[in-house]
Amino acid sequence: MEQVYNLLVDCSCPRDNDHRKESETGIQELRNSDPVCFLYYTMEVLQNDKCKEQARQLAGILFKNTLINATQDPALDNLWQDMSDEQRDLLKRNSLGALCSDNKAIIRAAATAISSICIFEIPAGSWPEVITSLNRTTVNQEENIKYASLLSLAYILEELREGELNKDDLNLIVSGLIESLDKNKESPDLIEQTIKGIFHSMKFCKQYFEKREADIIVNSILLMTKYQSVGVREVAMQCIVEIVRLCYDFIEEFMKDITDVTILATENDEPQVKTQAIDVWSSLAEEEKMRIDNGKSHSNIIRTAFGIIMEMIFSCIQEINLGNIEEDDDQEWGTSVAAGCCLNLISKVVEDDVIEPVTNFAAKNIEEDMKWEQKYCGLLSLGAILEGPDKNKLLEILTPAVPQLIDLLADSNRKVSYTAGWLFSKIAKSNHELITYADNFGRLYDQLINGLRTNNNISANICSIIAELAEAILDRENPIETCILSGVYEELLSVLKDYVLEENSGNTRVAGFSAIFNLLQYAPIDCQETSYNFMNYILDLLEESVKDSEPPSIANQELQCFFLCAVQCILTNIQADLHDDFGVRTIELVQKIFLQRQDVCEEAFLALSAVANKFPQILNHHIDSLGPFLIHGLKCESPGIIRNVCGLISDLCTLVESPIIVQEFKQYMPILLSHMKNPNIGMSVQVIIVSLIGDTFLLTKNQFEPYFEESLIILESAAKACVEIPNCQYLKKYDEIQALVQYQSSLIEAYTCFVQNIRDVNDRCYQCLGTHIYNIYNFLMSTLAPEFDHSIDFLREVGGLVGDIANTFGRNIGMEMSMSNQIMKDDNRLHQLVNILSNYDDTDTKAIADFIVSEVNKIGN
């Protein structure tokens, strides 16, 4: 233990940074050499009241991080599960022993350790006594023991996920916490830990509402919104936020009391409590909006309480929270911002009804003689409602006020002018007709150009206005002939270019480039010649940046990256034919940038991909000289660079069918397969790698044989992983499923390359693919699970590949696949797919259904 303790002391109280790094390295080496012993030693330090406080605190943190494998070290996977019962029991006893301290910092560290053990033990039902023991000591004990027990319960509840706590333990905890609110009410510290425990229990408590047994919980929380401690009142209000979010269907009977406590809080309480009170209504609005969008019934709580809510919002939105009144433009999160967010959500529920009260409020507050705070609130309230009401009604009411709003861009107070800029960026995005009216646009344009040329505090918002306006009124897919920006397009590009060259702040420079990119991406046809000339200018700037052989400064590297993105943008979107010199010059400049930096960058590969699409043969002629940089990019740790290099090589395979790739693909295939086996390489990278593997096979055919079987094994492993439904919260689950669907589509694309072209390859590869066909077919059927909710395009891809499999392997189906025509014919999943495709109102889709039926019926014949 002594060695671990000394390192913990050195790490928590270092002489300098080098000493800290040395101590951290020592700790990591000890942990890696024997993780179980490391857990014992950290627990001994945590328990030992003779050790220094900082070291004991750090011991608790390291115990948890090691146990839950916070660093995602494969060597620590299943660490707790692989320990013996005796080892686990000793650590459990010692962690509870560490709670017996008079020092609250140590109690917190011990509670952290206990909660990390409970992550594994409680779902498995292996430590039932911990809940009983902690619950028993929340009342009728010494203050520190009660504090330790309540804190531990709160931490445990925070760590556990829905479904991991059994009903009996939940009942025991909730009843104990409710009892603690009553018996410990004279101690703010204990009540605060109790209400935090109740807050973290909310995710488990829906059952009480469903059974109409939640009265005592809700009434206890409502009572705590009036408790003497502001911390308790804040958490109690957070509990109400959770209740309305998780139990909307069961809260109508409590709404009068909830409304009363939120009114009281917004009138008289501290800012942090007011903010939570406003969030109650934000959660309700969000829930009702979601139900409206999904056609589900709701209780019209927001419309019923609309007048009361607006009074609270108008009161709270004026409680501005700026860090530095002279310099800060953005508000910090607080009551005013919460009120603005709430108003935005309310407007999406009540729609047109929000217009009158908000425009009346704004009109009173933006008058010329008003204080800056009032103008600020008026602008904030207008910006909050732009997405809710009918656009035409907003246009009718707001159009007369636009000149007055434009003038506020030049207000003498920087907060007002900045917020006016923010408002117009939102108008440009969702209601651009308000400012594209000729008279309004001319007046606004003068303010925009003046703001950019003087580089004042609203320059970043001006750039945002231009970027949003370009995207809103133009169409990248179908460029229009001309628009209101055509007459000022050249001047805008010139002024923005000067702005980004002069601007030193990273965020505002990014805003300037975003405006340039959108102008280039969405350029109307009558501005394309200007874009063409602008590209020449950009290439000149890049040429200038690589004249010095020394590595560029960070600022110049940023400029190079921005300019490369501009080149990619122009090459991708310009309709006119470009001279080949543009392609040659871009490639040569990219090579010079790589050599100057002695490194690669993501933006350069994006520019090369644009060259590949615009000048494929020119890029092919330079592939030899670019090859080392492509391999370097594949080997780097940046997911963005790996993705873009893979995309570029795919372009060379498909657009150019480059013979150089055929000669050199053996240099990159081992790297791709290594990335596919690396658990730390993200799914977004592997999706692109899978596509490249398919494209490479398509181009190289027989020469791909050395990598064929390994590729199939790796893709099969990926296929199994990407049909597993994630077990997580709704929004995260939705995002993860969308990522899995993209991965599935990439795998189907690669498998299609294999199956459709396997007859052009030798018999060994044919036989090898045959041994994997049944698993490929099973993968295809697994993607049809309803959770994935695929598009018809995806279903066509699946159906086409099923037909190809039957066509390619049908006559040998019994040889390699251990699958017969009866397996396919009896598969309800395939029947459902054929039924969907055959009933779809599209000739090509019906043809795929007929193709599947025809080829499946031929299997084995």
UniProtKB/TrEMBL annotation:
GO terms for biological process: protein import into nucleus. The keyword Ribosomal protein does not apply. One of its GO terms (cellular component) is cytoplasm. The keyword Transport applies. It is found in: Cytoplasm. One of its GO terms (molecular function) is small GTPase binding. Residues 23-101 form the Importin N-terminal domain. Its main location: cytoplasm. Keywords: Cytoplasm, Protein transport, Repeat, Transport. It holds the Pfam family TPR_IMB1. This is Importin N-terminal domain-containing protein. It comes from Euplotes crassus.
